[in-house]
TrEMBL record:
This is Zinc ribbon domain-containing protein. Residues 1-21 are annotated as: Disordered. It comes from Flavivirga spongiicola. Residues 1-14 have a biased composition (Polar residues).
Length: 203
């Protein structure tokens, strides 16, 4: 400690350098949550708007895009829409945001909270926003990109499914496991336990 501090005389006002590390205040938490919301909004806007920007975002985040085979698989099924961001890719980006936010939050949480209001805000952000982030945003995204169904499609699908059953497809084992999140059937080649379309673990 060679730097000599200008020590304030007894009754002088203390400078900011003399203050201990500030407590975790409501204002600071709000700022943190605003930043989180801005990041989430950017991800959501990009996922719904531009293929090029989405590819750049995946690169920046170091996330491997879904395989062409998985995309082909979705293309063949009229049930799904490829959308801008393939749902399994979108899920990975959300998971990364969740992980990063959690670790940033952990370093903030080392500080004592300033007020019970701040503690409440922290608790509700943790419990209702962060812990359910992936599930909630993925469901919303799947709903947004779902192909719009016209009455003509409904009749066509009804006829199609009758044909399918009469052809005896219902006994096919590969259709026995369905993704609870998006309804995709597990493809026969899928050895791993994640849904090819939305990335949710099947088991
Ligand atoms: Zn799925």
């Amino acid at each position: 400690m060679s730097i000599k501090k200008t020590t304030p005389t007894d009754n002088s006002v203390q400078g900011p350098e003399d203050l201990p590390e500030p407590k975790l205040s409501k204002a600071l938490l709000k700022e943190f949550i605003d930043q989180f919301n801005a990041k989430l909004k950017e991800i959501n806007d990009t996922a719904r708007s531009s293929h090029t920007k989405w590819r750049i975002l995946l690169e920046q985040e170091g996330i491997e895009p879904s395989s062409e085979k998985d995309k082909q698989n979705a293309r063949q099924s009229k049930q799904f829409n490829l959308a801008v961001a393939f749902p399994a890719e979108y899920r990975k980006v959300l998971q990364q945001l969740q992980k990063n936010t959690q670790s940033e939050l952990e370093s903030l949480q080392n500080r004592p909270t300033e007020s019970s209001e701040a503690s409440k805000l922290l608790d509700s952000f943790n419990r209702f926003t962060l812990s359910d982030l992936v599930t909630i945003e993925l469901q919303r995204y799947l709903g947004d990109i779902k192909p719009k169904v016209s009455m003509a499609d409904v009749f066509a699908n009804a006829a199609g499914s009758l044909n399918k059953y009469s052809a005896g497809d219902s006994g096919d084992k590969s259709y026995s496991v369905k993704c609870k999140t998006c309804g995709a059937a597990r493809s026969e080649e899928e050895q791993y336990g994640d849904c090819f379309y939305c990335g949710t673990p099947l088991f």
